[in-house]
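To the wet lab folks,

You asked to see what we're planning to order before we commit. Fair enough. Below is the target structure as tokens, and below that is the sequence we designed to fit it. If anything looks off to you, flag it before the synthesis order goes out.
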């Protein structure tokens, strides 16, 4: 692989373009102009491709400017629909009815399951009937703490069918993290598994759940999916096996769906922000559905024969939108894999693509870097010729990883869609439409329909001039000027926090928290977070979360976390800890503190580096100077910038000398 020129462009193959839905830059531009100039008629038409029990009376109402009162946006008011209906029932009587909807491959090779759209509908209806029997009613929240088993999408669709907002907690989170999320959402029911299987190991999710439930009085019932058949604890009267419930003779094959108003909540998903505890992003039925439907269809340029694999975990937004809802809304076959792409051998991912003849593969830069490290010979041994399109998401992709993916997986004939978006945005925001224009490595390219990005100058003091645009090539803060149907409506139980987090920095606009520049041709290059969010392997953790976990430990006086660049994970966590007086800074304590964070949050939040410090650098007004800690974590200590406001300069000397 030679040097990648900064402006290298990669054109889609002629054969790809000929059959693609948006097949020229001109077509993209014409549609884009219309989508932003006439958003109401544009989105109304898209929504009408789906089924509504009652048509909306108002397409959009909003206020994004805090100077004009409460910030809100509402889409498709007065319209009634149902997500589960649109993913399943809508396909009955069409050619999709007997098409495969979901193909599941367990980590052990012999564990597989397939469902046609018809079969999936029946399975979802039966699951819905189980939930109904437990007495759940529209609006009741249900927490799902599950690994990548096929029952997870079934459970989601069952919740959606009955209007029960689901809150999925990634199976890698600890019992503490699960507890907070259940308490916050006041879920009535928890769905979990006995054990999860990953990388050849089993993890006892049920006992994590039991631990969490000790402090979650709202939960009345627990439905347990059988994966390994092994449970270490059980509470009679509260816990039931899904198998037993769903096979009970009184559980029927059909269940009517609830008619949901467009703005009724579809789900809550917790994600880390720059401060405090994770925020429950609230996504609604009509807007989210419409947005995910269209982005899935056009960004992945779906064809009838598409066999689509998104490698994310359903516990994150990528899995919600683009493993479950997006593909099923479009009548596509979605592939779901239980394990990791590196187990039992480094070519597991390539082997699955070969075996199943996957046509679209969507993964994260982290996975690409980890896979590329195994060497080119692994993908080279496999027949990957079924692939037509590749995608990436979750963090900035370095051009080297992009090229590796392009050459070794796509064999230089598959376009790559680098899709930028967030839990809050519901769906893809900036991404190539693969048949429309050439791609550039490291660029998420142009905005999707209806999205108006603006790279704002962060240095503007004058309030009236806030939001001034940066020149091409200059990095600024990425904001979005206008509403779109997929954006979250609020933070569960805390609307003021939603307003403050996203709308107060640049009045009138949604602030993304990301740095970005645009080149002279309008290509967007995302530069990572500009706030205190750390992106580890495409997963968000806030410095505040890690710090609060650390200070819960009896020996810790103060803690600060920063991001450290990492070759595979993108970033890792570097923490600075000051101990209480008289406590010895030992290696054993270091390990104990790292384990403590893992227990409080989960393995993904484990600090890679922990440095004991005599004190943390503070301004005279007592604020921790994070900028300096970041530089130390990045090992850029000869460029600390202005330290004149620092209270005690010796602190820095100590920090640099003892850098881990
Ligand atoms: O910093 C951006 C980064 O991931 C953040 C959103 O994380 P989360 O809500 O967990 O959603 C991840 C999956 C959508 C963003 O603020 N990010 C996501 N995609 C990209 C990206 N950074 C650069 N390029 C991307 N394609």
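Sequence we intend to order:
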């Amino acid at each position: 692989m030679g040097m990648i020129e900064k402006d290298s462009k990669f054109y889609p193959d002629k054969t790809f373009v000929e059959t693609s839905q948006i097949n020229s830059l001109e077509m993209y531009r014409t549609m884009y102009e219309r989508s932003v100039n006439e958003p109401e008629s544009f989105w109304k038409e898209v929504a009408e491709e789906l089924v509504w029990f009652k048509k909306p009376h108002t397409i959009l109402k909003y206020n994004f400017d805090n100077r004009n009162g409460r910030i809100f946006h509402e889409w498709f008011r007065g319209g009634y629909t149902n997500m589960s209906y649109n993913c399943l029932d809508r396909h009955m009587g069409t050619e999709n009815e007997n098409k495969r909807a979901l193909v599941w491959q367990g980590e052990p090779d012999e564990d597989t399951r397939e469902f046609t759209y018809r079969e999936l509908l029946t399975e979802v209806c039966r699951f819905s009937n189980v939930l109904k029997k437990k007495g759940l009613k529209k609006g009741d929240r249900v927490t799902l703490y599950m690994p990548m088993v096929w029952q997870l999408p079934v459970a989601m669709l069952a919740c959606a069918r009955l209007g029960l907002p689901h809150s999925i907690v990634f199976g890698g989170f600890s019992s503490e993290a699960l507890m907070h999320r259940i308490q916050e959402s006041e879920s009535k029911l928890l769905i979990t598994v006995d054990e999860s299987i990953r990388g050849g190991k089993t993890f006892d999710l049920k006992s994590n759940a039991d631990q969490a439930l000790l402090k979650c009085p709202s939960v009345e019932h627990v439905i347990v999916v059988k994966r390994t058949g092994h449970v270490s604890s059980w509470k009679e009267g509260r816990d039931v096996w899904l198998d037993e419930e769903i096979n009970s003779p009184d559980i029927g094959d059909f269940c009517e769906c609830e008619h949901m108003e467009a703005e009724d909540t579809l789900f809550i998903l917790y994600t880390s922000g720059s401060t405090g505890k994770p925020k429950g992003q609230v996504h609604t039925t009509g807007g989210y559905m419409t947005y995910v439907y269209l982005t899935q269809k056009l960004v992945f340029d779906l064809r009838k024969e598409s066999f689509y694999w998104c490698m994310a975990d359903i516990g994150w937004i990528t899995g919600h939108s683009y493993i479950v809802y997006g593909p099923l809304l479009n009548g596509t076959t979605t592939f779901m894999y239980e394990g990791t792409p590196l187990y039992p051998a480094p070519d597991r991912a390539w082997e699955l693509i070969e075996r199943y003849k996957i046509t679209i593969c969507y993964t994260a830069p982290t996975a690409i870097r980890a896979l590329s490290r195994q060497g080119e010979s692994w993908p080279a041994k496999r027949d990957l010729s079924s692939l037509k399109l590749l995608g990436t998401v979750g963090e900035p992709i370095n051009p080297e990883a992009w090229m590796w993916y392009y050459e070794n997986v796509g064999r230089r004939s598959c376009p790559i869609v680098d899709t930028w978006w967030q839990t809050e945005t519901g769906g893809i925001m900036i991404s190539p439409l693969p048949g429309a224009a050439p791609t550039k490595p490291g660029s998420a390219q142009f905005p999707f329909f209806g999205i108006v990005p603006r790279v704002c100058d962060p240095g503007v003091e004058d309030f009236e001039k806030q939001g001034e645009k940066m020149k091409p090539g200059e990095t600024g803060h990425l904001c979005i000027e206008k509403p779109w149907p997929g954006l979250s409506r609020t933070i569960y139980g805390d609307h003021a926090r939603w307003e403050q987090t996203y709308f107060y920095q640049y009045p009138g606009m949604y602030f993304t928290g990301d740095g970005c520049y645009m080149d002279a041709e309008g290509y967007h290059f995302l530069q990572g977070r500009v706030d205190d969010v750390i992106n580890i392997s495409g997963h968000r953790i806030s410095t505040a979360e890690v710090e609060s976990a650390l200070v819960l430990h009896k020996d810790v006086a103060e803690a600060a976390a920063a991001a450290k660049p990492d070759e595979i994970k993108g970033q890792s966590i570097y923490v600075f800890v000051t101990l209480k007086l008289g406590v010895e800074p030992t290696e054993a304590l270091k390990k104990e503190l790292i384990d403590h964070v893992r227990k409080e949050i989960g393995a993904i939040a484990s600090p890679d580096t922990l440095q004991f410090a005599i004190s943390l650098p503070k301004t005279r007004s007592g604020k921790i100077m994070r900028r300096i800690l970041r530089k130390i974590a990045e090992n850029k200590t000869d460029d600390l910038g202005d330290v004149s406001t620092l209270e005690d300069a010796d602190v820095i000397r100590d920090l640099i000398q003892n850098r881990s």
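Structural context that might help your review: The two ends are 34 Å apart (CA to CA). The chain has a mean pLDDT of 95.

Thanks,
Computational group
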